[in-house]
Amino acid sequence: DTGVSQDPRHKITKRGQNVTFRCDPISEHNRLYWYRQTLGQGPEFLTYFQNEAQLEKSRLLSDRFSAERPKGSFSTLEIQRTEQGDSAMYLCASSRAGLTSGIEQFFGPGTRLTVL
Amino acid sequence: GIQVEQSPPDLILQEGANSTLRCNFSDSVNNLQWFHQNPWGQLINLFYIPSGTKQNGRLSATTVATERYSLLYISSSQTTDSGVYFCAVELANDYKLSFGAGTTVTVRA
């Protein structure tokens, strides 16, 4: 039984570069979520997918951010033209899809991004 | 959006002590989860508890949904219990978790 995995675990980049993160959800989980956590704060929602459809995006997700889940399995989160304010832990979570909301979410280990 | 308040913000315990962490939320929810964030940043699921009471070893949790609060109890604390504890809630048909600011627990030997 494998949990949610994320790659890379750490990323250091220079301001202005593009970065891409990958998340592999628990198998048979068809909902996938991205959250961002800055130092000393709780995680904040960015976006979520049900299968390959991106159903909601937060206002935090500026036009420099794009997320995909092309085949309804793994997901990628890309940040273009990174800024120092993008430095954070990026967390991925997954859950089963039920008839309603309120399903338990399980989190991956996160990708820690540092923008110099 | 929904407000989630955790108290206290910081808690220092002597090993072996008991403690209670509180989570208040401002609206009706259909999901409430407690997490422990380990030193490497991973969120470990402790309880999925939109209502009622659950126990898992030295940890237990109670959610009183009608009064919009949840409590996490740690008994006979150990140094490995140190870390940040988060409460997160989900509104009906909202699909995303809203987190509190966390309670930082330090257990001293």
What proportion of the residues of chain A is helical, as a percent range?
Answer: under 10%
Proportion of beta-strand residues of chain B: over 45%
Q: What ranges of chain A have pLDDT less than 50 throughout 5 or more consecutive residues?
A: none
Task: Please report the two chains with the greatest interface, counting residues with C-beta closer than 8 angstroms to the partner's C-beta.
Answer: A-B, 27 and 28 residues
Oligomer: heterodimer
**H-E string of chain A:** EEEEEEEEEEE
- What is the C-alpha radius of gyration of chain A, as a whole number of Å? 14 Å
Report helical residue fraction of chain B.
under 10%
- Report the biggest beta sheet of chain A as strand number plus sense, adding barrel if it closes: 7 strands, mixed
Beta-strand content estimate of chain A: over 45%
- Unreliable stretches of chain B (pLDDT < 50, length at least 5) are none
Structural class of chain B: mainly beta
Total count of strands of chain B: 11
Large-scale geometry of chain B: globular
Distance between the termini of chain B: 40 Å
Give the overall form of chain A: globular
Count of runs of 4 or more consecutive helical residues of chain A: 0
Distance between the termini of chain A: 37 Å
Provide a count of the helices of chain B: 0
Order of helices and strands of chain B: EEEEEEEEEEE
Secondary-structure class of chain A: mainly beta
Structural write-up:
The complex is a heterodimer of chains A (116) and B (109). Chain A is an all-beta fold. Helix content of chain A is 0%, strand content 48%. In chain A, strands 2, 4, 5, 6, 9, 10 and 11 form a 7-stranded mixed beta sheet that branches. Chain A has a 4-stranded antiparallel beta sheet with strand order 1-3-8-7, with no helix packed on it. Chain B is an all-beta fold. Chain B contains no helices and 11 strands. Chain B starts with a strand and ends with a strand. The chains are: A mainly beta (116), B mainly beta (109). The A-B interface holds A 31, 33, 35, 37, 41-45, 48, 55-56, 89, 91, 93, 100-110, 112 and B 4, 29-31, 33, 35, 40-43, 45, 48, 50, 86, 88, 90-102.
